Amino acid sequence: MAISEINVRNQFRGKIKEIIFGPVVSEVDVETQHGIVTSVITSRSIQDLDLKVGSEVIALVKSTEVSIAKIGN
């Protein structure tokens, strides 16, 4: 399956660096050229998508809120 078009603008191509498996949900670290993007998804989805360390993926980030914190003085 290939994604030809999607409305999510924040897309980060990368490779899976680490998967921390849990009984229901798992943590997936994706190494991108902008840094590590971490996703928490169901363990079943990891199996269904056949995700493994080294798999090439696209992390799609969709948020309804962006918070800003001031650094320094």
What this model shows, in words?
With 73 residues, the protein is mainly β. It has a single domain (8-59), classed as OB fold (Dihydrolipoamide Acetyltransferase, E2P), CATH 2.40.50. It is built from 1 helix and 4 strands; from the N terminus they run βββαβ. The longest helix has 6 residues, at 43-48. The radius of gyration is 14 Å and the shape is globular.
SSE topology:
Layout (H helix, E strand, L loop, with lengths): L9 E11 L4 E8 L2 E8 H6 L7 E6 L12
Keywords: Molybdenum
Protein name: Transporter
GO biological process, one term: molybdate ion transport
Based on the structure given, which CATH architecture is correct? Beta Barrel
Biggest sheet layout? 4 strands, antiparallel
Order of helices and strands: EEEHE
Count every helix, treating DSSP H or I runs of 4 or more residues as helices. 1
Keywords: Molybdenum
Organism: Duganella alba
Protein name: Transporter
List keywords for this structure.
four-stranded antiparallel sheet, mainly beta, Transporter, OB fold (Dihydrolipoamide Acetyltransferase, E2P)
